[in-house]
Amino acid sequence: xxxxxxxxxxxxxxxxxxxxxxxxxxxxxxxxxxxxxxxxxxxxxxxxxxxxxxxxxxxxxxxxxxxxxxxxxxxxxxxxxxxxxxxxxxxxxxxxxxxxxxxxxxxxxxxxxxxxxxxxxxxxxxxxxxxxxxxxxxxxxxxxxxxxxxxxxxxxxxxxxxxxxxxxxxxxxxxxxxxxxxxxxxxxxxxxxxxxxxxxxxxxxxxxxxxxxxxxxxxxxx
Length: 222
Ligand SMILES: [Ca+2]
Ligand SMILES: [Ca+2]
Ligand SMILES: [Ca+2]
Prior knowledge:
Blueprint: H1 6-15, H2 32-48, H3 59-69, H4 80-90, H5 100-124, H6 131-147, H7 155-165, H8 176-186, H9 196-221
Helix pairs in contact: 1-8, 2-3, 2-6, 2-9, 5-6, 5-9, 6-7, 7-8
The structure holds calcium ion (3 copies).
C-alpha cells in the first residue's frame, strides 16, 4: 500500500473543508475508533521517546515496540537481522528512522495481510492481545463492519462511519457535502468508493495530525 505524502493529502482533505479538531479527543465521549487512534499515537510516542528523536523510531525502538506491542502480528522480532530487513523496507526516505506515517504504512500492510482471518482468530482464541493490537483490531473491524461484506465502502457507508466514529476528531462531519468532498479527496483510484487502503490513509492522516498537535501542546506547556 502507498501512503500519500501528508502535505499533499492534507491539501486534498482541506479542499473538502473538513477541519481537524484533534484536541477534542481529551473528552470522555470518544468513539471506539477515536480511542483506538489515540492509543496508536500514544503507543508510538511511548516507544519513539526512548532514544534520539521523540518523533521517530530508531531500529532499537522499533524492535522493542514489535516484541512488546505486536507479538501476535510479527514473528522473529527478537532476531535483529529480521528487524534490519523490516526497517529498510519500511524506511521510505532512508534516514534510518521511522516516522509515524512510515510506521503506519507498515501497520496497513500487516492489517491487510491478516484481514478477515484475524477477526475469527481473535474471537475464537483467548490469548492476550496488546493495547496496540487491540487498537488495530478496532480500526480494521470498523472498516469490515461498515463495508457489510463488500471490498470497499460506498458513499453511504463511508458517511455513516465518519459521522458515527470520527465526529470528535474532525469538524463538519454532520455536513454530508463536506464528507462527500473529503471522500473525493481520498478516492485515489476514483472508483467512487473508499477501499481499505484509502481508508487507512485517512486514519493515518488523522493519527499523524493528532500526534503533531500533541507534540505542539507538550512544547507549549514545557
Ligand atoms: Ca526515537
Ligand atoms: Ca524514515
Ligand atoms: Ca477508491
